[in-house]
Amino acid sequence: MNGLYQTFAITLMNLRSLPARIGPSLVIVVGIAGVVAVLVSLLSMAKGFSATLNGVSDEGRVVVLRGGSTDEMSSGIGTQQARLIVTKPGVAREDNDALAAGETYVIADIPKRGNESPANLPLRGVEPTSFAVRDEVRIVQGRNIKFGRYELIAGVKAANQFQGLDVGNRLPLRGVDWEVVGLFETGGTIHESETWVDNALLVSNLNRGGGYTSMIVKLESPLDYDQFKQALDDDPQLETNPIRESDYYSGQSEGMTGLIENFGYSVGFVMAIGAVFAALNTMYSAVSTRSVEIATLRALGFGSTPVVISVMVEALVLASLGGAIGAGLAFGFFNGYTASTMGGTFSQVSFDFAVTEDLIVRGILWSLFIGLIGGLVPSIAAARQPVTVALRGM
After folding, report:
1. I want to staple 322 with a disulfide (CB 3.0 to 4.6 A). Which of 32, 49, 195, 389 is the partner?
2. Structure pTM?
3. What gap in Å lies between CA 193 and CA 86, rounded to an integer?
4. Using CA of residue 135, residue 136, residue 137, residue 140, what is the dihedral sign?
């Protein structure tokens, strides 16, 4: 008898008998669905956090930090240094003015909505040219700040997470009441988790005597980066660390993204062990209840290989069903869900969970792996059982 036909016949018989074994089958489906739902949900958190920071992807912008610094919080750029930086080759210009801005990045303790405990709200002092350099900024409610006034605009995600950031409110920060005059979007990037104010007023309020924590510079072309960096390195009056903006934020996201992914896989692995044992128990039970059927088929000339394959197919079908349900649950409940966590500068970063296609595929592949392990041993046991021993059970 043709081996392919045998495999098809036994597999079809097994699948047709699933409704009669709905209880044990649901154990596999529900168990694996839970594993995949948790795994995909945790990985979507890492994916969303990474996407928020890596969304700042203009290769033609450079963050200039003090030499030896790796983030804005630990950096400092003097006013005289800033004047020298904007004279370097490769800096883009508009109406003969350099498209560059000195900015000051600090954090403020503001309670989150629904929670009186203070959290770290990012506060960025900006200059008028900041908006020309970051041309993705869009005011979506209210208006932009007027420089020289104690006014503040908030990213939409910061406004959703923190108290007091509604347009028209006055927010006490660093001893001064700042009026919230607008909300802005930047296409879902990390800047939507920040609040922006007049840099000169912020620095004065902080008693820093001028200067910035960093500079943001727009180049004429992304290809000018090496030339610009070399010019900064060659100037003995400067000690700077220029980083492409995309690389800067990518580096900020790596640690947290890796931590979340490792945690997700660890939890998924532990849960998968339980799901494998559930699958083993269910498949052993299924094989045991049909041992006489299997032995009869083998006595009629069916080979052991079709038996192994048929049991494996059944396990994989149940596993893939569980994987699809789990991925669907993760997508339905968590895709687009907004959360916040601590970023690389110890400030709150708001981001949306992102259940992407590759995460769904990853979850279903994980479910198939569980089904493969859970069905392999019972299928081999079914094929190796002596026909005479099984037929005695009749």
Report:
1. 32
2. 0.71
3. 28
4. positive
**From CA 52, how far away is CA 296, in angstroms rounded?**
60
DSSP per-residue string spanning 11-77: HHHHHHTGGGGHHHHHHHHHHHHHHHHHHHHHHHHHHHHHHHHHT---TTEEEEEETT--SGGG--B
In 3D space, the residue among 127, 107, 181 whose CA is nearest the CA of residue 150 turns out to be 181
Q: What is the pLDDT of residues 106-131, one digit of tens each?
A: 988 888 887 777 788 899 999 999 99
Non-local (6+) Cβ contacts of 357 within 8 A are none
Tokens of 245: 């903006």
Average pLDDT, the chain: 82
Selection from 301, 392, 320 nearest residue 360 by Cα: 320
Tokens of 147: 């420089």
What stretch of H or E contains 349? strand 348-352
Q: Among residues 67, 127, 60, 73, which one has the least CA distance to residue 97?
A: 127
Contact residues for 27 (Cβ-Cβ < 8 A; gap 6+):
278, 281, 282
74 pLDDT band, cuts 50/70/90, is confident
Maximum Cα–Cα distance across the chain: 96
Measured in whole angstroms, the distance separating CA 153 from the mean position of its chain's CA atoms is: 26
Once rounded to an integer, what is the mean pLDDT over residues 159-181?
90
